Amino acid sequence: MNKRFRRMSDNDIKAIIVDLDRWAMGALGSKLTWTVLEERFSFSRQSLQAKSEIKAAYDIAKRALSGGLVKTKEQATEEVKELRVEIDRLKSELQAYRLKEEKWLRRWQQIAFHIRQKGIQMSSVDKKVPDGVKLPSNTETSQILRPFDQEIPSSGRV
User: Fold this and answer.
1) Region of 131 on the Ramachandran plot (φ > 0 left; ψ -120 to 50 alpha; else beta)
2) What pLDDT, on the 0 to 100 scale, is given for residue 85?
3) Phi/psi zone of residue 156: left (φ > 0), alpha (ψ -120 to 50 degrees), beta?
4) Which residue in 33, 90, 94, 96 has a CA-CA distance of 20 to 30 Å to 105?
5) Which class for 153: exposed (0-12), middle (13-18), buried (19 or more C-beta within 10 A)?
6) What pLDDT was estimated at residue 1?
7) pTM
8) CA-CA distances (angstroms) from residue 133 to 128, 136, 139, 142?
9) First CA to last CA across the chain, in angstroms?
């Protein structure tokens, strides 16, 4: 008896649907045709299409493959490489921002220390500016704050 013309059992149908689901997920590659299924399962195209559940699973797999939802292994590998590069870049950028924040916080600690050394409380300095008052430019601010850029003297405690 020719295997190509044997009757399709419920187990055959389930196996074919499982494979079609795997195809839809990209696990079996990106080339899916009725000819591929005929060769893989030894059933004619007409027999495969006659089973509505197989036809539905085939249509879903084809849509997934053609809609760009599924990537080939090479595409996925390349995307992973690109994402790793981006992750490394973002980690470096985050580290740079952390260092900037650390320096910024340290500078404000120094400013607070020196203001307090002058007998001024931070609460009297750190107030909301009234509406309509023009704030100093970045250049003016740098000039105003320059005297406070000194290191905080060591307390002698360890």
Assistant:
1) beta
2) 94
3) left
4) 90
5) exposed
6) 41
7) 0.46
8) 10, 10, 17, 19
9) 92
CA–CA separation, 90 and 97 (whole Å):
10
By residue count, the chain amounts to 158
DSSP 32-55: --HHHHHHHHT--HHHHHHSHHHH
The amino acid that residue 56 corresponds to is A
Q: Take residue 133 and report the two structure tokens written for it.
A: 């008052």
* Residue 140: Cβ-neighbour burial (10 angstroms; 0-12, 13-18, 19+): exposed
Distance, CA of 146 to CA of 153 (rounded, Å)? 17
Give me the average pLDDT of each 10-residue run along the chain (158 residues): 66 91 79 88 89 90 75 74 93 96 90 85 83 90 83 70
At residue 149, φ and ψ (nearest 5 deg) are -80, 5
2: left (phi over 0), alpha (psi -120 to 50) or beta: beta
Give residue 5's identity as a one-letter amino acid code: F
User: What six digits make up the tokens of 127?
Assistant: 């107030």
Question: Which pLDDT score is estimated for 157?
Answer: 59
Residue 55: per-residue pLDDT = 92
Q: What is the pLDDT of residue 17?
A: 92
Query: Rounded CA gap, 126 and 116, in Å?
Result: 12
